[in-house]
Amino acid sequence: MPLVQEVPSEIRSLTRFVPLLGEAAVEDARNLARRLQERLAGAVVWNVNSTAVGGGVAEMLHSLLGYARGAGLDVRWLTIGGPPEFFHLTKRLHHALHGGRGDGSPLGEAEHHVYASNLCKNAVELRGLVRRGDVVLLHDPQTAGLAPSLLAAGARVLWRCHIGADDVNADVELGWRFLERYLDGVPILIFSRERYVPDRYRDGRVVIIQPSIDAFSAKNVELDEDTVRSILVHVGLVEGPPPPSPRESFLRSDNTPGRVERFADVIRLGRASAWETPLVVQVSRWDPLKDMAGVLRGFSLMVQNHALPEADLVLAGPNVRAVADDPEGPAVFEDVYRAFREQPAAIRARIHLAMLPTADVEENAVIVNALQRHAAVVVQKSLHEGFGLTVTEAMWKGRPVVASAVGGIQDQIEDGVSGVLLPDPGDDEAFADALHRILADPALADHLGAAARARVRDRFLGVRHLVQYGEIIGRMLAA
To answer: Which InterPro entries match (predicted)?
Structure first.
């Protein structure tokens, strides 16, 4: 089986953004696409990453490539493959660039051999697809080692890093030292935040582009209350019965009808939450940096310290066996389950650990959409975060968000205006107090949610993101 796989992209029209952004902004994006198409002169723009399912990068690529193709550009998406030891190593790199130790395994010459030898095999397959003059946008540490081979083949290469750390420590330095031999020849490096840029690359090669969401994807499209309730009852996250006219259907990106057929695997002490019960929700990968166990402990403190209002907690992530490039998932889920078992029975009865189905990407997305829309408060208590698209998604749905003041979350939320930031992600007491403050004050929750949606509309939708990419590629082609 080939290591390199092409991911199909649906064609999506920019016209749907007109009601949100206005005709002028959308027409500017179309004009840029036409100019870029002329400069490409038949060349392809390739995106290369490590997975088509799970995580914000894959979600953004599904969306952005669809709109780029709808604007007339030949944009394609490839994923690379490899053995478990390769993804174990790249997960260690992921932690290092966030400033964490991960499993503490080394990043020395033996690891370079594992990394480079696997990417060499992928590069052989890539060079059978990528032609001289094509543009290749490599995403994240998993793909950085492809750059030298692609540059030697005459491709125009950019590398996009979606992660980083605000403060440099020994692990951050170790991670960047590992990657430098692969990146030094890349002419354009793209980061999400200025503070993530290593000193080595502050030489004019860096461009800052913040991520975005697709307001019309299955994860973010408007859902009415009956559809939300139908979906959550069907998957087992809310107790039935469903509304009188159940609606688990949704519209896929290719405009064909879809339906939520699968169920969530949920660990709980008793029954699913009642529809009327306020939910505190965190949706993320089962990753130690997302601190799901910390969310659970903080929620427990809130319940112990504040008798009212009553609420349940839902910690939701993908099925731990479904994400190919995340080998830590099962162990992290086990840690969260251990924290769950340690709670008193009365608190466990209000906590729900949900593994959402991922076999159908858009089915998974609409389940997340329904869950976020039903949430009374959405949480992202990450210890480190590259950007945090789950924050953007919840803000777009008008939900009040409590999140850590780390990474790109700080660029999204204005503390006290469009959400609540936690200065110390490890302060479970402060987290518990923030949750209670919002749950106990519906007017505050409504104010934060409305301001959050407006901020996303103005700053974090996909048209802005596409325009920035187009401008950078256009400059590269003109050089």
So the answer is: Glyco_trans_1, Trehalose_Metab_GTase, TreT_GT1
CB 340 within 8 A of CB 353: yes
- 111 neighbors 177 (Cβ within 8 angstroms): no
Question: Which contacts of 215-218 are long-range, i.e. CB under 8 A and separated by 24 or more positions?
Answer: 215/17, 215/20, 215/396, 215/461, 215/462, 216/12, 216/16, 217/59, 217/62, 217/63, 217/253, 217/365, 218/250, 218/251, 218/252, 218/253, 218/258, 218/362, 218/363, 218/365, 218/366, 218/369
What CA–CA distance (Å, rounded) separates 258 from 248? 9
- Tens of pLDDT, residue by residue over 82-140, are 999 999 999 999 999 999 998 999 999 999 999 999 999 999 999 999 999 999 999 99
Q: Quick count: other Cβ atoms within 10 Å of Cβ 203?
A: 8
Place of tokens 């998932």: 329
Pairing of strands 312-318, 279-283: parallel
Equal fold, 5-212+461-478 vs 225-459: yes
Rounded distance between C-alpha atoms, residue 429 and residue 427, angstroms = 5
Instruction: Report CA-CA distances (Å) from 372 to 354, 399, 431.
Output: 13, 8, 19
CATH classification (class only), 225-459: alpha beta
> pLDDT tens across 418-427, in order?
999 999 999 9
Give the global pTM.
0.88
Q: Which architecture, in CATH terms, is 5-212+461-478? A: 3-Layer(aba) Sandwich (3.40)
Domain spans in the chain, listed from the N-terminal domain onward: 5-212+461-478, 225-459
